[in-house]
Design brief:
Jelly Rolls; mainly beta; single chain; four-stranded antiparallel beta sheet
Length: 198
Amino acid sequence: MKTTIALLSCLVGVSLALALEVPAKARWIWFPEDEATFQKGSPPGTNYFVRVLKVDAQVRSAQIRVFSGGTQKTYVNGTLVGQSLFWHHNRNYDMTQSLRVGENVVAVEAVNLYQSPPYKGPQTISESSKALLVHGIIALEDGGRIEFVSDAAWKTARVATAGWLEGKLDSSWVIVKDFGEPGPKVKVPWAWYLFEGF
């Protein structure tokens, strides 16, 4: 009996440990267009995204992975940490030196390169290029860990207002539209693209 209980306790402990190791899932995010606009496709142009993070201890190391359906530039506290010039490239960037104890601002400038075709349903692989995925991991000197992803905690705008890289946002900035996790179950054009690590 004691052996059974010990075994069960061990299994529970392993399950909990494994659950904690499962990374948070990034979500497809973009500007919250109305349904009529979405059905017609998205026009070319640039959208801006901002996420504010609080870091409570010194940073040991930090990586951020970004995928944009067009080109993108990624900033941390106003410093450019990386960029991609091709829509199908997801990138890993080191942001260790750009982070600080206290409030931090992660910002992405994402460009929709061309007119996206209308969304015709999940059975059709669309050429739509609008999409953004982000996954960041921060390891702290005290042993702590901060993980963040693209989700409804981000704000977006279609104009880069003054101070946006420092997180100074006016009323034109709105909460992003969350289109769900990557994968074929999400009924958006770019949901068919799967990226390991997101």
